[in-house]
Amino acid sequence: MGKVVRKLKDHYQTSLVIFLFFVAWQLGVMFFKIPEFILPSPLAALDHLLFKQPDANYNWPLQIGTTLYEVIVSFCATSVIGIALAIVIAWSRTIHDLTLPLFIFVNSLPIIALAPIILLWFGYGILTNVLIAFLVSFFPIIINTATGLNAVDEDLLDLVRYLHASKWQIFFKIRLPNSLPYLFSGLKICSTMCVVGAIVGEFIASDRGLGYIIINSQYTMDTPPIFGALIVVSIIGVALFEVVSLLERLLMPWHRPESSPG
Amino acid sequence: MNAFLKKHYKKAITLLGFLLLWQLVVTVFQMKVFILPSPLTVFAHLFAPEIATKYHWLNHIRTTLGEMVVSFSVTALLGVGVAVAITWSRFLRGIIMPIIALFNSLPKIALAPLFLLWFGFGMLPNIMIAVLIGFFPVVINTAAGLNAVEEDLLDLVRYLHASTFQVFLKIRLPNSLPYIFSGFKISATLCVVGAIVGEFIASTQGLGYLIKSSQGTMDTPPMFASLILISALGLSFFGMISLIERWVMPWQGTK
Questions:
Q1: Less CB within 10 Å around the terminal CB: N or C of chain A?
Q2: Which of B72, B105, B115, B237 is the best residue to mutate to test the A interface, defined by the most A CB atoms within 10 Å of its own CB?
Q3: Are A203 and B112 spatial neighbours (Cβ–Cβ below 8 Å)?
Q4: Does the pLDDT value for residue A257 go beyond 90?
């Protein structure tokens, strides 16, 4: 009970500080009469997001839908393909030893630098952005899952081998449950990276989506939509992260997850 | 050196095999250069004097390297400083932590065009973008490390009348070093990413700019050459931090 109260108090304090941050921002903009093309007030951004008549450029449902679609498709593709490949890798010790170091190596490279090459190959459009988001988020999930599948207590494996467990049984009853914490921490990284990939993709290769709005409004120095788009992008990122956390809690009630994105 | 070779020869063989396969695919299927250049073509663009001079590699490398080094230094100093401040003072922690949590959950790279708007073209916005992306892992890791001290140990030294300052310098700081360095390593990669994305959208120089502008002219060899250079820069940066880590913490086993 005391724990719950303390948690509520922490949440209350955090929300209060964040709220005060936005109030200070609003007052600062009003008080110092900061020109809108430098920094709009939070209310101006919200106003633009919620109440402006949509013209062709700021058709918010279309832009939000595009980015959301890219994020969701790339996230699903990364998780399914990443986990499947991780299982293949973990199945054989030789493949594991040969490929995992390479994946770790590639993961340490700035993969986002590939974006213009993807653009060159696949042209402008949603597919390119999905592919960029996929590439950026693919390696963390594969590395985490493969590591988790192999991070099994050797003694336990010896024991069940002694009890004549088949490879399948070992996989489903020991390796897979054991890998879940790793898998979910990979999925969490992936949920943030997919948003980053989609946005950077839209920066350089798109004519729609929230990233496009941000970059396009920068050209015209129209800052309220930039902040409006930032708000929505953040909500998408946090929401995806929370969905993964929820799944984690459902699938692993015995495990206490870390609770902040990033 | 021998141990180093032993540890990395598998990686080297796989990498070499990959390059060989790439070269073969391009040669056998006679792929057009504007779709996929062969590794040999790419290396020619980097090293053959008559082609390489066209791209002014040294200028671009200098710009990107400068952005990386400056942004990482700022990130490291500022990140550790803020982490120490919020560990030191409850009041500051109450104010700064929620705002850090707020920003950390944002896809920070989306702020890049804003920095361009505020700071204009050039190296400065790219450095700021890289700092913004690399900053949070350092703060969060360092703060975690400074707080991950055994309570018993703290009780013991308090009993021995250690001052807060002594506790900090002799217990908290050494204890947090592994955390700090793992934060530095994450941040090193992120600084490279930040600098490159910054150059994509706001630059007339640097390897990121070269990739983006070559994409416009469908000139693929310099794109791949830049990728190789960026990777090499990032890896050597990472390697240097690992070296410093081993030097600062000789008691930690090498991973």
A1: N
A2: B105
A3: yes
A4: no
| Structure ipTM over 0.85, yes or no | no
Candidates B31, B90, B114: best to mutate against A (most CBs of A within 10 A) is B114
What is the per-residue pLDDT across A144-179, written as a single tens digit (0 to 9) for each? 999 888 888 888 888 888 888 888 888 888 888 888
Q: How far, in Å, CA of B146 to CA of A123, rounded?
A: 48
Q: Quick one: closest CA in A to B212, which residue?
A: A116
Q: In this predicted structure, what is the pLDDT of residue A53?
A: 60
Instruction: Answer yes or no: is pLDDT of A182 > 70.
Output: yes
- What is the Cα A201 distance to its own chain's centre? 14
How many other CB atoms are there within 10 angstroms of residue B251's CB atom? 6
**Distance separating alpha carbons of residues A63 and A38, to the nearest angstrom:** 23
pLDDT in tens, B29-88: 888 888 888 888 888 888 887 777 788 888 899 999 999 999 999 999 999 999 999 988
Alpha helices in B34-166 (DSSP H): 39-47, 49-52, 57-88, 90-104, 112-119, 123-147, 151-159, 164-166
- Banded pLDDT at B168 (limits 50, 70, 90): confident
Sign of CA dihedral B62, B66, B67, B72: positive
The whole-angstrom separation of Cα A111 and Cα A132 is 9
Determine contact, residues A146/A100, Cβ cutoff 8 Å.
Answer: yes
Residue A1 corresponds to which tokens in the numbers above? 């009970």
What interhelical angle do A126-150 and A60-91 show, nearest 10?
A: 30
Q: What chain B residue is nearest to A122 in terms of C-alpha separation?
A: B35
Contact yes or no for B113 and A215 at CB 8 A: yes
Rounded to the nearest 5 percent, the helix, strand and coil shares of chain A are: 80, 0, 20
Asked whether the beta carbons of A208 and A66 are under 8 A apart, the reply is yes
Task: Please check whether residue A221 touches B, CB under 8 A.
Answer: yes
Residues 162-181 of A with CB under 8 A from B: none
Q: B194 and B126 in contact (C-beta within 8 Å)?
A: yes
pLDDT at A262 over 50: no
Residue with tokens 């490398």: B61
Dihedral sign of CA atoms A132, A137, A140, A143 in order = negative
Hey, CA dihedral for A43, B115, B68, B34, is it positive or negative?
Answer: positive
Mean pLDDT confidence for A69-75: 95
Closest CA to B199 of B215, B186, B190, B212: B212
Q: What share of chain B is helix, strand, coil (3-state, %, to 5)?
A: 85, 0, 15
Distance CA A215, CA B45 (A): 32
Question: Rounded to an integer, what distance in angstroms lies between the CA atom of residue A161 and that of residue B246?
Answer: 40
Percentage of residues of chain B with pLDDT beyond 90 = 30
Report the C-alpha gap between B63 and B130 in whole angstroms: 13
Tell me whether residues A110 and B189 touch, CB distance under 8 A.
yes
